[in-house]
Description:
The protein has one domain. It has 5 helices and 6 strands; from the N terminus they run H-H-E-E-H-H-E-E-H-E-E. The strands form 2 sheets. Strands 1, 2, 5 and 6 form a 4-stranded antiparallel sheet that branches. Strands 3-4 form a two-stranded antiparallel sheet.
Amino acid sequence: MHLPHRSPPRSLSPPPPWPRPLPQTEASRLAARYSDWAGSQSNAEALVTGLRSGSPVTLVTNGADRSVSLAGFSPSGPISYGAVGNALSGAQRSLSRVGIVHPNAEQIQAALIGGDVLSSNGKLVAMRGSVGRAHGPRRQSLDSVSRRPLD
């Protein structure tokens, strides 16, 4: 007597949790990496998106003393995600070298496109800019509106 072939029983393990997390994109990985340094997730996303696409970047940071720093610039054109990562890493290193670990919006702008910053010891330091040399971004009209205490 010939018995029909039967498949082995299926495992009774529970189904995967839903919804499944979406895979991280290069943009979200870069934004997550620089969100603390940039002062917020939205600033990090603005930096990554703006540098990558060549669109205007606006940054807003809040200081421990309740001050607000606002700065912006327009990259001259789009750059690759690799170049975005290099630009942000270079800006972070440049500021770190002068003792700035948690920069405000103006300091981030200066480190990316060039400008002056006050170092942690109070000396004025000229930043060359990690993207300004190769890509020539333009400052926006809201350039360097900063350090206004919140009421």
